[in-house]
User: Fold this.
Amino acid sequence: MKKKIMKRAWEIAKEGQKRFGGKVKEYFAAALKLAWKEAREPKQATLVIRHQPSGGKEWVAEIIGRHSRFNFERRFLNPIARNWSSSGKTGTTTFLLQEGKVYEISEPFRGRYFVKVENGKIFDVTIDDVIQKIA
Assistant:
């Protein structure tokens, strides 16, 4: 991990030198701080779901625990963008997912399923994985 951070710090420092001039090492201290900040921030991924009102409403919910009636306690996410046609019959809905969390997704064409984010990429998970994660 430290090697990745150092490599990223040098990349940032070189970008600073190209943009503002001077020597690369003059930018390294600030670049190292930025590289550490990037490494600590949770990774995010964007999920785009096709919208079709006849297929039901699309939604994304973070799984936050167990629920006696519905199996899982959920926190529903607000979309970050809706790119629908003027009639509202077609288009896409976009959600922002964070690393380290498990989500349930409902979309008209695929149905309901579970996902997680690792290194900025979205992966499907089974219901057993979800139970282990929240147990």
